[in-house]
Amino acid sequence: AREAADALDEAAGSVALVFQRVDFIRRAAELYLSSGHLELGVAAARRALEHCGRTLSDSRTMAIFSFLWTDARIGMARFRIPKASEKKHDLHGDLEADVLWSLGVGLALVDSVQAAGLANLALLHAAQLKDPQRMARALCAAAALASATGRFSRAEIMRVAFDRALDLAMDPTIRLYRQIADLAHSFLCQN
Question: What is the value of pTM for the model shown?
Fold first, then answer.
């Protein structure tokens, strides 16, 4: 994974298109973080987030505050996974959703609070985009990380949102993300 992340990071330096450069950086960050190369992963994560006008929390207190704030916003939201025809076409928004999701997933094994905050932001952002694929993916990550942080009732509410989405969208990808969220929840509840 380190070699692939290095290659992506190096390729990002030679790409002229900003969106492609940031996409390479976010993919490198995810690989670095998920393979245990924390310093490289955090550095790449900061670069990817900077493009989106966001930052990683510098302190544990700020990470907890960010998580609680996004968790409260999610608690007040009514999520539904839209139909593909409702999707807003916004390249910058799509990239931001991808960055938030990747870094939430990448940090999951390293810093569950920071990861949950980013996954929550990815979910809130994807909901604004009305993109069913990104919404399902973000909902999966947020549900799994809600379980990881002991928010089992919140995870259950998110998993129920999948059921409503399955009834409306009939998209097999949504079913896959629902199954992943179920596996994560079962694993975390039983261990």
Answer: 0.83
